[in-house]
Amino acid sequence: MSPRHLLLALGLAAVWGVNFVVIEVGLAHFPPLLFSALRFLVAAVPAIFFLRSPGVPWRWVALVALTLAVLKFGLLFTGMAAGMPPGLSSLVLQAQAPFTLLFAVLLLKEHLTRRQLLGMAIALGGIALIAVDLGATSPVGAFLLLLGAAALWGLSNVIVRHARPPDMLRFMVWVSALAVLPLFGLSAVFEGDWGALRSVPWPAVGAVLYVGLLATVAGFGAWGFLIRTYSASSTAPFSLLVPVFGMAAAAVFTGETITPVQVVAGVLVIAGVLTGLGYAAARPSPAISPASTSG
């Protein structure tokens, strides 16, 4: 990888890691489902007016919109609003990797190697360690919401793998467009009053623009470019830096305390994902969805 593209990959991991802190800023003003709807509205408009169709049957776009954009991000934002800290959220979401393998076995009839099984066990061990470390007074319910978000992320990764969209940026813009109305509908039913839209402070505006334009549109575009240039197997390891940047940003900007147990858990999760990824890198692999890396 050239130095310029290496900096792009590192910068992208930083953008996606800091994204979790920015989500926290947005949730301080918007209810979670409304914030998620605004995120995808900004990501879709005006891009859909300049892009062609997604290049795959619309049923796959609708399925990913449901599992990833509506349900996964709905659970993620709701879990963080319920008290899950941003740094730890960026780490727990890496559980999407073993969930992806599990759904690939169940739905695509893939066979796991011993190395993949070992990686899954190591990563899940790290997630279990986080659950134990949370303790009785910590947001265990919020943690379970994040774990559900990771599972839905894994499911959407398998759907994307099966659909094989030719252009991930174009695909994700249309996914964003299809998610807007359901998210606004869910917000209307479960959150009711949209008083947060009457007066929006600049930090909240910046949060919507960051997660919608920078983390979603620009992020997916850069990730797709790197995968097309260097292949998924050589690009995917950079996604493992996302929780590193996420936890560091949370410690600096929000004062989130990272315990020694969480550090060990983080090492286990990243090592487990890297173990399974190491086998995938040894053989040709389909394009990996950038959805598996960011919040």
UniProtKB/TrEMBL annotation:
This is O-acetylserine/cysteine efflux transporter. Residues 6-131, 143-274 form the EamA domain. The keyword DNA-binding does not apply. The chain crosses the membrane at residues 33-51, 60-82, 88-108, 117-136, 142-160, 172-190, 202-226, 238-255, 261-282. It is found in: Membrane. It comes from Actinophytocola algeriensis. InterPro entries: AA-Vitamin_Transporters, EamA_dom, EmrE-like. Belongs to the EamA transporter family. Keywords: Membrane, Transmembrane, Transmembrane helix. PANTHER family: AMINO-ACID METABOLITE EFFLUX PUMP-RELATED, INNER MEMBRANE TRANSPORTER. GO terms for cellular component: membrane. It is a multi-pass membrane protein.
